[in-house]
Amino acid sequence: MTSFVDMLMSQRYIENYFKRFATDQPLLKEAIDPTCKMIVVIPCCNEPDLISTLNSLKACEQLEYSVEVIVVLNHSENAMFDVKKANEQTLLEFGKWNSLNELTHLKFHVIEVFNLPKKTAGVGLARKIGMDEALRRFASINYNGTIVCLDADCLVSNNYLTAIDQQIVKSNAGVGEMNFSHQFENEKNNNLKEGIVNYELFLRYYVAGLRQSLFPNAIHTIGSCMLVKANVYAKHGGMNKKKAGEDFYFLHKIVPHEKFVMVDKGTVFPSCRTSDRVPFGTGKAQQDWLNKDDKTYSTYNPKVFEDLKVLFQCLEKIYDPTFDNWAFELPASITTFLEAHNYFEKLNLIRANCTSQQQFKKQFYVWFDGFLCLKFIHYARDNFYPNIPLVKAAGTIINSESADPTDLLQVYRDLKF
User: What is the pLDDT of residues 185-204, one digit of tens each?
Assistant: First the structure.
């Protein structure tokens, strides 16, 4: 049960958010169903098959309350004619589909945000517009609902909504991530299929490596799989406007401070397609794979995670003011990284402002977050441990000698990395 104090704090976060960060006024005129507890936000730009995503949601098992879906149809003010034409076609298709699929338990809306400023137009801003609207709608019924992120090229399992309901809506978690599985089994293009198998294996290997390093916030950061409670969204300043990597920065901003849950009972099925709209991510990785002559997929050496583990295991000694030689116990990759960025001073400052070891560890991981982990890993890769073939790295983590990325991927999925 939500306490009266929690409700007051939630209202305060939301009021403050609308004053500082959110759009000025509601974008949807139709009032929200007062029983709604979940809103799915789907950014959509130049997507050829939004209807398949909507049909996938329509096929989900029903809940005891209503759910809303907000499609944010968007493009930049300098978008190509073909993009604008595609979005206009999608708008027509949505209107026709929606008129034929009126449901009592699932309400579909579209927000048209055409001609966004070219400086900020992109997936981050589109998500923000939709998530801000979801927040406003929940605020109108004074409910701390769950904002769900999805993409317009994804399908979902039929227990998608019920899994979210069971594992986050009815929990005290503030933020979460859905299980995911790329749709490579039915991919007819063998190059795309091979590329996405390697890419998903890389994503899971990276999280597995972080977990083995004992990093407490080792999570996937996939935009189409994010979940967040409304008050937590407001409390932490909402979605950013980044054109790529918005999901990574959004989740790692929140996770050190809030209870995280992995919603593993339901699944999102992202597509295998290529894309040139963002500088990194699935679509870019797929395009890079197609452009490569050498089909060896390389990734970080497992030694980078082993060195991180030494650092994390040394935190008690770092906090202990009587132990001055802790730096000598760290690998060279760690000490040179800390020295190169003046991070020894930061460590000393954190230690000086903490009154207990528990508090020190908490503040340490607020600072040494997912972004700083990645920054170290790139430093170690460039200066100590060059990349190695992905199948070798992934096999090392799970003690497997398999050279088949598909087999390795299945093992990683089974292990829930």
Answer: 776 777 778 888 999 999 99
